[in-house]
Amino acid sequence: MLTRPALSVAVLISGTGSNLRALLEAASEPGFPARIVAVGADRDADGLAHARDFGVPTFVVPFRDHPSREAWAEELGRRLDDIAPGLIVLSGLMRLLPPALVARWSPRILNTHPAYLPEFPGAHGVRDALAAGVSQTGASVIVVDDGVDTGPILAQERVPVLPDDTEDSLHARIKPVERRLLIDVVRRIATGELDLAAPAHT
After folding, report:
1. Under CATH, domain 7-191 is a member of which superfamily?
2. pTM score, two decimals?
3. For this structure, is 171 an active site residue?
């Protein structure tokens, strides 16, 4: 019986890379159907150390070294073209990708978000949920599109908001859910169980 080749995944980060670490650990397990082939960043991010721990090549395309977001994205795009991953995962990348780069790779770019989309999109999803006084928020995995957290939802799960929650404590409970959902979505894409050509809300 023919076996499906492992899905090659590139991960892009800006910070500590906690979701990256979880994905690297999952991909190192025997039988996991995807492998991380490169980790890139827009700065000298602490999370690059996780990739080095697992022997995964890293690269940096410093945002500040380019005159515009578009120029930065062109260089990032060239790096990604050289790697030619089957999937790109944004793991705390704190930059919006310009439409041309999204179009080049769509729908093979994923992102996680610490809210139950379409609730509380944007950079402060946890803070906004607390400010709204809701009893629950969540975590989501989406396909990246030209909007801000507006792409098709591939997986999501509710997380309760506790009466004494702070932004840090709530985010700390959301993060493990984000990681679990992300790993499962990558696994399902790699096995063909999830078809990105026709993503469905789950």
Report:
1. Formyl transferase, N-terminal domain (3.40.50.170)
2. 0.94
3. no
Q: Is 94 annotated as a binding residue?
A: yes
Question: Domain limits of the chain?
Answer: 7-191
Residue 40, annotated as binding a ligand: no
Tokens representing residue 183 in the block: 């790993």
Beta strands in the chain (DSSP E): 7-13, 34-41, 58-60, 87-90, 109-113, 136-143, 153-160
Residues 96-136: pLDDT tens digits? 899 999 999 999 999 999 999 999 999 999 999 999 999 99
Tell me the C-alpha distance between 175 and 15, whole Å: 14
Task: Enter the tokens of residue 106.
Answer: 């769509």
Catalytic residue among 113, 124, 171, 201: 113
Q: 34 near 186, Cβ under 8 Å?
A: yes
Q: Which long-range contacts (CB under 8 A, 24 or more apart) does 28-32 make?
A: 28/54, 32/187, 32/190
Task: Give the sheet arrangement for strand 153-160, strand by strand.
Answer: 58-60, 34-41, 7-13, 87-90, 109-113, 136-143, 153-160
Contact call for residues 13 and 20 (beta carbons, < 8 A) = yes
Please name the helix (run of DSSP H) or strand (run of DSSP E) that holds residue 126, with its range, or none.
Answer: helix 125-132
Residue 35 marked ligand-binding: no
